[in-house]
Design brief:
The protein is an alpha+beta fold and about 220 residues long. The protein folds into two domains: about 100 residues, Herpes Virus-1 (2-Layer Sandwich), CATH 3.30.40.10; about 90 residues, Zinc finger FYVE domain-containing protein 21, C-terminal (PH-domain like), CATH 2.30.29.160. Helices cover about 20% and strands about 30% of the residues. The strands form four sheets. A seven-stranded antiparallel beta sheet has the order 10-9-8-7-13-12-11. The chain has a two-stranded antiparallel sheet with strand order 1-2. A hairpin with a 2-residue loop joins strand 1 and strand 2. The longest helix is centred in the last third of the chain and has 22 residues. It is elongated.
Length: about 220
């Protein structure tokens, strides 16, 4: 959950969650709880197709809401995108995505919040300027602060392209990103060679994971 929000404890049939008091304050990385498949309409496990009976009980995956047997939905994992307090049941189908998301929260989110230095240019500009880019504490804006301040809403990013090396260079390391956002706006960020380059590359990796996570969710 984004820092600085007013929070409340919400109890649902899926478990306890700490959520923003106002829905509009939620992080764009968060996921809403899915509706649960009805027990009376679920006679078999979605994955192994074993029939439910007195010994084989139904279990709902907290990430997708479908019904599984205890073997196919027996592992409990943190569901940080849904703000659960404790680890919850996650089916085998949802485990890979859940682990990737948890890796983002554990290793990459703080990198975006910390920020990094780049050279920035926009579509209507022929020059670039040094700036510091970071994710705001609400997680909703990418703040580009140079001589002026530009705020790019995370959910307004329509597409993104990671830049690697330079023309004619075989070096495949990241050195920038192009963001297309809003109705017709573009922002290009390029790594500045020097001592801060490593931090900038780490920030680009974290940004890629954040935007990919959002785009995969809405695909």
């Amino acid at each position: 959950m984004a820092a600085g929000q007013t929070k409340r404890l919400l109890k649902s049939k899926s478990g306890l969650r700490i959520v923003p008091t106002k829905d509009c304050d939620g992080s764009p990385f968060e996921l809403a709880e899915p509706p649960w498949a009805l027990d009376q309409e679920s006679s078999h496990c979605v994955q192994c197709h074993h029939k439910f009976d007195f010994l084989t009980r139904r279990h709902h995956c907290r990430r997708c809401g479908y019904v599984y047997c205890g073997i196919c939905c027996g592992q409990r994992l943190p569901l940080q995108r849904m703000c659960f307090v404790d680890p919850v049941r996650v089916c085998q189908n949802c485990q890979p995505a859940t682990l990737r998301e948890n890796d983002f929260y554990d290793r990459h989110l703080h990198v975006l919040l910390r920020g990094a230095k780049f050279m920035a240019s926009q579509q209507d500009s022929s020059s670039s300027m040094p700036c510091t880019c970071k994710l705001t504490s609400s997680h909703r804006l990418i703040e580009v602060k140079g001589s002026d301040v530009l705020d790019v809403p995370v959910l307004s990013v329509n597409s993104f392209r990671m830049l690697r090396g330079s023309p004619g260079d075989t070096n495949s390391s990241l050195n920038g990103v192009v963001l297309d956002y809003g109705s017709n706006a573009m922002l290009q960020l390029e790594v500045i060679p020097g001592n801060d380059a490593t931090c900038a590359v780490q920030w680009l990796v974290a940004l890629y994971k954040a935007l990919k996570m959002i785009s995969d969710t809405h695909a």
